[in-house]
Amino acid sequence: MSASDRNSNLRAVNLPADWSPTSWRERTALQLPSYPDAADLESALQELRQLPPLVTSWEILSLKQQLAEAQEGKRFLLQGGDCAESFDQCSSDVISNRLKVLLQMSLVLVHGMRKPVVRVGRFAGQYAKPRSADTETIDGVTLPSYRGDMVNAPAFNEAARRPDPRRMIKGHARSAMTMNFVRALIDGGFADLHHPEYWNLSWVGHSPLADEYRRMVNAIGDAVRFMETLSGSEVHNLNRVDFYTSHEALLLPYEESMTRQVPRHWGHFNLSTHYPWIGMRTAAVDGAHAEYFRGIRNPIALKVGPSVTPDQLLRTIDLLNPEDEPGRLTFIHRMGATAVAEKLPPLLDAMRRDGRRVLWVCDPMHGNTESTSNGYKTRRFRNIRAEIETSFELHAAAGTRLGGVHLELTGEDVTECLGGARELTESDLERAYRSTVDPRLNYEQALEVAMLIVRKQAQIAAPA
Ligand code: PEP
Ligand code: CO
């Protein structure tokens, strides 16, 4: 048992006495579908309660330990994946390509920042989405909004949009398949540093960033061979990495059904994912989501948007991490490139003045969404870059630390975000825009983000 686990086991005495996996039901729950038939819902939940978990408590506690290290600046968090997974995209190529991008980015970060990376995918459960309106009207017809594949289907007709509780069971199965394939790849040596070529995507060779990436891979290969020559044997532990999962724990009936007690540990764990987060629209401190999250032992994250006040943030910590447990709470700020310099510093100052500690992470995607004249929802690479770079500077100025990034990306060769090394333009969006929800960085743009993080962090650490 690790020191932090022993430590957190001592906390059992402080278990919130008035909490249970169902106590969220007494609060206002935003963004939940209204299921037409309560008996159908209950029967689906009953089935889910019997199904095996997707992750284990010891993986959850080891991630919490790694996040505690990230909070102290000893690691950097890379969290990324689709805005929304979809049931038909649960395929071997989509899963392995996404894993390849995350592995390549983490290699760039480890090499450039000289510290280990905590790798977390937005996958194996990212199937429920908050929406700005409950309904959508097209040509005079009004139907419930699409809320992610775990709730309903995107097609605009009544049957597709009706919330169906059986979709939670399918979502659990798709998550298990994704998880199973990721685990098999990692255990089979897919992440082996002796073979970074396993992670090459077919179009890498033509990328404007290819030379820089290849030089880095060669340098790492030389270092590994040097160590092996010196020690006369293969350097072990280079052939596998830890990989964790996360999703927005929006659909509380599902999350409740996956909330379990396990032998030899006190309290409850959400065993549908390692690292659930609360989205910006459901982050109210007196709301149902905060109530649910307060009682689980997972490391948890909360999105922090531009309208959050310092006082709200401090009350959120009182509720979600009253004992200041390291690694327990992450704040993911997503202000937008134009608002971040005004909105973030008051929050950082209040936290520092009050001696509160969390892991700070920047999501440079969700505050930078816009629509183009030809009707695409997109994000400009230069705004994404500006929000990351400004965030590093603001944390340095406030005496806090930016400990990670949260990105929407894919290993597919899509054209959804504008700009980047290949300078995608509005007309390029028509070529390969595939997201049904938010625009994602493609492989190249994601790698470029990793490279710019390394450069910015070095500049902050050693100002010219
Ligand atoms: C998301 O991460 O896909 C999302 C909806 O983010 P936010 O809650 O920050 O808007
Ligand atoms: Co999104």
From TrEMBL:
It catalyses: D-erythrose 4-phosphate + phosphoenolpyruvate + H2O = 7-phospho-2-dehydro-3-deoxy-D-arabino-heptonate + phosphate. Keywords: Cadmium, Cobalt, Manganese, Transferase. Mn(2+) binds at C83, H366, E408, D438. One of its GO terms (biological process) is aromatic amino acid family biosynthetic process. Coiled coil: none annotated. Binds 1 divalent cation per subunit. The enzyme is active with manganese, cobalt or cadmium ions. Its EC number is 2.5.1.54. It is an enzyme of class 2 (transferase). Phosphoenolpyruvate binds at R122, K303, R334. InterPro entries: Aldolase_TIM, DAHP_synth_2. Its cofactor is Mn(2+); Co(2+); Cd(2+). Belongs to the class-II DAHP synthase family. NCBIfam families: DAHP_synth_II. This is Phospho-2-dehydro-3-deoxyheptonate aldolase. It comes from Lysobacter capsici AZ78.
